[in-house]
Design a protein that fits this description.
The complex is a heterodimer of chains A (179) and B (169). With 179 residues, chain A is mainly α. Chain A contains 8 helices and no strands. The longest helix of chain A is centred in the N-terminal third of the chain and has 23 residues. Chain A starts with 7 loop residues before the first helix and ends with a helix. Helix content of chain B is 61%, strand content 5%. Classes of the chains: A mainly alpha (179), B mainly alpha (169).
């Protein structure tokens, strides 16, 4: 069933008729980016895995009612976004541990350490954002969605998305200013 | 041509950077940026975020994830009873008419059961009790038959009370 001419919408309709092979193909095609969103949002494997699993199962359970009025990706972005926000409310954020300074004589080690420290700072900064700002930032920077697509995923307006991004960026710039 | 003020321009910088402005608005912002060092610096600050955000590594999806998803999918198809979490999620996702109909059905079943139980203890006329451990209390025209102590094994308090009541009749 790895035929790219079969659209995602057709696969989801087939899933709704009980075709699990179609569902497996959906998982194969979309797990990677679903994982990226969840992982960038939470920064933790366990929470990201839970959300991705739940997102696909929710997709499976809703497939019987699916109407292809919206594109599959739009529909699935919405499911994932909603789950990220719901899970965020349920679970307390987990703080990253500080990175130890390890003496290393290898060339490039200092650069690698700096990169890791920067990544850790970015992670901490993202974790301090309000969940909807964080999700807007993730969808913009890591999924390259435009305002309309982000608005559809977050079930809001493009103006609200613009505000979420502006506030999120302002907050991140303040925290990352001296890096 | 009217120039944008800095404060108005700053409000549009995010959308400008994201390519989300209409042609006319974009041109107005560009005219302002051509003459304003401060707003150009603010735009550069915005752009500088991108390399920071790109520094975040994404761990690859764990190997167990696909199997977990597909295992659960097969269980769903086999119709195994969903856990409490899925039942709650299902209630949120199902259309409201399904939930309402299920609630109405439960209500009707409860009322029917209650009616039957009430009817079964309705006063009966001229009927002798056929129960071995029952008390018949009569007024002028009706017997009210209460099978109040049907579970009264020999030697129990209930059986003793029944015996005494029978004696006193």
């Amino acid at each position: 069933m790895s035929d790219l001419s079969v659209t995602d919408e057709s696969l989801l309709l087939a899933t709704g008729r009980g075709d699990l092979k179609a569902f497996e193909e959906i998982v194969r095609r979309h797990q990677s980016w679903a994982w990226q969103i969840a992982y960038q949002f939470f920064g933790r494997e366990e929470q990201a895995a839970d959300v991705v699993q739940e997102a696909f199962i929710r997709l499976l359970r809703a497939s019987g009612r699916y109407q292809p009025t919206a594109k599959f990706r739009t529909y699935f972005y919405r499911i994932i976004s909603r789950l990220c926000l719901d899970q965020f409310k349920k679970k307390k954020p987990v703080k990253l541990e500080a990175i130890a300074d390890l003496p290393d004589q290898n060339p490039g080690a200092a650069e690698e350490l700096l990169r890791k420290e920067t990544a850790a700072s970015v992670r901490l900064a993202l974790d301090t954002l309000a969940p909807n700002q964080r999700l807007a930032i993730v969808l913009r920077y890591y999924e390259d969605l435009n305002y309309q697509e982000i608005a559809a995923a977050l079930e809001t307006t493009t103006k609200a998305v613009e505000r979420l991004l502006a506030r999120g960026r302002k907050h991140l710039r303040t925290l990352l200013k001296n890096r | 041509m009217k120039m944008l003020s800095c404060s108005k321009n700053r409000k549009s910088l995010d959308a400008y950077m994201d390519g989300e402005l209409s042609g006319r608005r974009q041109a107005a912002v560009e005219r302002h940026l051509a003459r304003c060092d401060s707003c150009r610096a603010a735009l550069n600050d915005l752009r500088d975020l991108k390399p920071f955000l790109s520094s975040l590594d994404v761990a690859p999806a764990p190997n167990y994830l696909t199997k977990r998803i597909l295992t659960e999918a097969h269980e769903q198809k086999r119709g195994k009873r969903p856990g409490l979490l899925w039942s709650c999620l299902e209630a949120l996702w199902y259309p409201s008419w399904v939930v309402k109909d299920a609630t109405a059905a439960a209500l009707i079943a409860g009322l029917t059961m209650g009616t039957y139980m009430g009817w079964s203890s309705f006063p009966t006329s001229g009927l002798e009790s056929r129960m071995t451990a029952s008390i018949a209390v009569s007024d002028d025209s009706n017997f009210y038959t209460f099978d109040a102590m049907s579970a009264a094994p020999d030697g129990s308090l209930e059986a003793a009370i029944l015996k005494q009541l029978e004696k006193n009749r």
